[in-house]
């Protein structure tokens, strides 16, 4: 989890989020530090993010922005092919959106009254732990 300023574009911190992945394996073996797929919204549809995911061997499930589609079509055959997009895999992204909606039920998290990022992050972690405990 990465906490940024409210005015910051969340697509700009994809690399930092990917660097923070650490998923221990059950039993023996090194922990996973790279996902197979990243499903994201159109805010992450920049060429920089797509290139980052491609260089790490991660499948990007990100829809194209309408402005990118129009720009590519205006260029004709020089516009290139549209990036691959798996609509079925993108439908599973609603789970993440529901988690955000559940997190925002806490008024302190939704309104961001905390002055320090560390206390806000602690609140988000506490919310995630309680959510996880309810589901096991």
H/E topology pattern: HEHEHHHHH
Task: Report the structural category.
Answer: mainly alpha
Oligomer: single chain
Number of strands: 2
**Unreliable sequence segments:** none
Description:
The protein folds into 2 domains: 1-86, no CATH class; 93-136, no CATH class. It is mainly α and 136 residues long. It is globular, with a radius of gyration of 18 Å. It is 46% helix and 4% strand. A two-stranded parallel sheet has the order 1-2. It starts with 13 loop residues before the first helix and ends with a helix. Strand 1, helix 2 (47-55) and strand 2 form a beta-alpha-beta unit. The protein is built from 7 helices and 2 strands; from the N terminus they run H-E-H-E-H-H-H-H-H.
Please outline the helices and strands.
Layout: H1 14-19, E1 37-39, H2 47-55, E2 59-61, H3 66-74, H4 87-91, H5 94-103, H6 107-111, H7 117-135
Parallel strand pairs: 1-2
In brief, what are we looking at here?
By secondary structure, the chain is mainly α. 46% of the residues lie in helices and 4% in strands.
Give the tags.
7 helices; single chain; 2 domains; 136 residues; mainly alpha
